[in-house]
UniProtKB/TrEMBL annotation:
GO CC entries: ribosome
Taxonomic source organism: Xylanibacter ruminicola
Name of the molecule in the record: Ribosomal protein S18 acetylase RimI
Keywords per UniProt: Acyltransferase, Ribonucleoprotein, Ribosomal protein, Transferase
Molecular functions per Gene Ontology: acyltransferase activity, transferring groups other than amino-acyl groups
CDD domains, sorted: NAT_SF (cd04301)
Start and end residues of each N-acetyltransferase domain: 1-164
Keyword Metal-binding: no
PANTHER family, A to Z: ACETYLTRANSFERASE (PTHR43420), N-ACETYLTRANSFERASE DOMAIN-CONTAINING PROTEIN (PTHR43420:SF47)
A Pfam family hit: Acetyltransf_1
Length: 164
């Protein structure tokens, strides 16, 4: 898989991946995202800030995610395991429905961990919707520890962290 930053020209294609994923999640009873979040404006800002990454597999976007040092105020609820570490945050990790259940997310996490470690980060933080069994299983298996909880519009999220 070829992982790279998304370009402005790919905005519609990236937004389509999220839109298709929302439909698939709804079909599975996972009400994590909707037309409000993540919307096209948020994705456009992520691309403009060079923090939206895409993984290309067989000529198609298989995965999208954001890496940045910014996090919501709700992250203060975390009892972070490595409070003094230099950390980065994964936001909006999304596997295109046609690529789900093929190990893409796990491979993407390995890539993220490797590249972030090479850039001097000590840990990775993220949040995971408590009603999404797929993401919870992924992060548990990858060693991301639950450090607390956050409440947003769609419900309760686990705050997670991993030393890299």
């Amino acid at each position: 898989m070829d992982i790279r930053t998304a370009s402005e020209e790919q905005l519609d294609e990236v937004f389509a991946v999220y839109s298709e994923a929302i439909v698939a999640m709804e079909k599975n009873g996972i009400h994590q995202w909707d037309e409000v979040y993540p919307d096209k404006q948020i994705i456009s800002e992520d691309i403009a800030e060079n923090r939206m990454f895409i993984g290309i597999e067989d000529g198609w976007i298989a995965v999208c995610f954001v890496l940045c040092e910014e996090c919501d105020d709700e992250y203060k609820n975390g009892r972070w395991l490595f409070p003094g570490s230099r950390y980065i945050v994964i936001h909006r990790l999304c596997v295109a429905p046609s690529f789900q259940h093929q190990g893409i997310a796990a491979r993407t996490l390995c890539y993220i961990e490797k590249i972030c470690k090479s850039k001097g980060y000590d840990s990775i933080r993220l949040d995971s919707f408590t009603q999404n069994p797929y993401s919870r299983k992924l992060y548990n298996k990858a060693g991301y520890a639950v450090t607390g909880y956050a409440a947003w519009r769609k419900g309760r999220f686990e705050l997670r962290e991993k030393k890299i």
